[in-house]
Amino acid sequence: MKRILAALALVSALACSAASTLQTNVGHDQKADFARYKTWSWKDDGSIRDAVWKRRVQAVLEDELAKHGLTRSEPNADLWLAVHWRLTTEQHVSSYSPAVWGYGYGPYWAAPAMTTVYEIPAGTMIVDLVDVGKKEIVWRGTASQEIQSNKENAEREDRLREILARLFAGYPPPGS
């Protein structure tokens, strides 16, 4: 009985640590001169559909980027900032018919079509900094398994601050 309880405790601890794992990745253009970038403007891709949450995200980004010497300037910015992200799980439907693809057994016209539905998990956020003049991405940060839609806005905002601090910890990149 003690072994079973110990095993359950271990499995539970591992599950909790796996659920809170934040995976980040940052990359940048080695040839970009980050010293010349002083201003940024928001480039909306429509992935944040909640207007209130979008304003919160913009405010948190404005705070974080100010720590790194970048100020928001909508009309004449050096960089566009684009956030690509979904807070919800999306479903993808894929259909296949042996009659169309041509294999299976029996007459092809009698074979049933098969449809597979699978979920694309929520939780990947991509932050791009794009050189406005060149229209090229010069910096990209990616965070996976970061913010859950079932949390209150204050909890999500606190988590967003942690994530952005981690993504921008090395900004501007060394040697730029």
Shape: globular
Structural class: alpha/beta
Which stretches are poorly predicted, pLDDT < 50 over at least 5 residues?
A: 1-19, 97-106
Average pLDDT confidence is 76
Total beta strand runs: 8
CATH class of the domain at 22-87 and 122-167: Alpha Beta
The share of residues in extended strands comes to 25-35%
Major sheet attributes: 6 strands, mixed
Question: Roughly how much helix do the residues carry, as a percent range?
Answer: 25-40%
Order of helix and strand elements from N to C terminus: HEEHEEEHEEEH
> What is the terminal-to-terminal distance?
60 Å
CATH second-level architecture of the domain at 22-87 and 122-167: 2-Layer Sandwich
Identify the strand order in the major beta sheet.
1-8-7-4-2-3
Task: Supply the number of helical segments.
Answer: 4
Radius of gyration: 22 Å
Quaternary status of these chains? single chain
Molecular structure report:
This protein is an alpha/beta fold. The chain contains 4 helices and 8 strands, in the order H-E-E-H-E-E-E-H-E-E-E-H. Helix 2 (51-66) runs parallel beside helix 4 (153-167). The relative contact order is 0.21. Mean pLDDT is 76; it is low at 1-19 and 97-106.
Short characterization:
The chain has 176 residues and is an alpha/beta fold. It has 4 helices and 8 strands. Helix 2 packs parallel to helix 4.
